[in-house]
Write a structure and sequence with these properties.
The protein is mainly beta. The protein has one domain: OPCA outer membrane adhesin/invasin (Lipocalin), CATH 2.40.128. It is built from 2 helices and 10 strands, in the order αβαβββββββββ. A 10-stranded antiparallel barrel has the order 1-2-3-4-5-6-7-8-9-10. A hairpin with a 6-residue loop joins strand 7 and strand 8. The radius of gyration is 41 Å and the shape is elongated.
Length: about 300
Amino acid sequence: MVRIVILAIALLLFVGDTLRAQTEQAPIVDPGLQPYGLPPDGYPVGANGYPGPVYAPPVPGYSDPIGEPPWCESPYRNSAWRVELDLIATNSHVSDLAFGDWEESATPAFRVSLGYEDERNVGIRFQYWAFEEDTKTPAGGVDLEASTFYTDMYKRFFIEDAEMTIGAGPAFGRLQFENGGERTELRGAGISFFGELFYSLRHFQNGTDLGTTARGRVAMLSGWVHESGFPGANHVDHDVMTVAEIGWGIELRHRFGRLQDKYWYLSIVPEFQTWDSKSLANIMEPSFEGTSFNAGIAW
């Protein structure tokens, strides 16, 4: 009887020890670990044959965006000397009540600018515009001359693909009609306010941008009007003149240099300009309309 009890106890101990060993060795298989290369039994095997740590490859980062995102700093935000030359095919307009039928024909005018802009995009610029035309009218040949000279102090702002310039400064203007021995001349000095805008519509991989450009200016001048050569000629010492300009067109820019910090640009801009004088008869006040072909460089 005792032998049977001892044998039964030994058999129970043997079965219990066997079941305990199987429980400790049973792997816990997680299906989520299979992509990392674990064998089906759940135990990765190292080079020495023993289980080792699991190596999870790093998650690849995002690739660089193609092209320049709109929030990047503008590549044109550099200090530079700036030179511009405009050739403008211009038509002048004067009321037919002044000299009879005013002949309108395209006459070349020009505009030249020279300035410097520092690294804060604060700059100064000198700009001169001139127009001269000899027109045939029923009253005879009329020589019309007009010119302006501006000293612009400005600040350029960059907002994503847009570039905006706002400034002001001293202004000078001259207007003259001469018909035979009859002459009317206006001269004035004052201040002008202006704004310019460039917005890039298309970026090219070679450093070229194609965009739209616009500009506007108002000059308020104080001066005098002098008339001579005809009965009733008068001289006015205190005259007020206003010159207004507006233009809109397209512009092509191309960057160059080792650091791509210089660029040249070409633009075609239809523009319109009006002159108004407090002392000059309304029928004598001219306006100018034309298309500007502009070339410039910033270096």
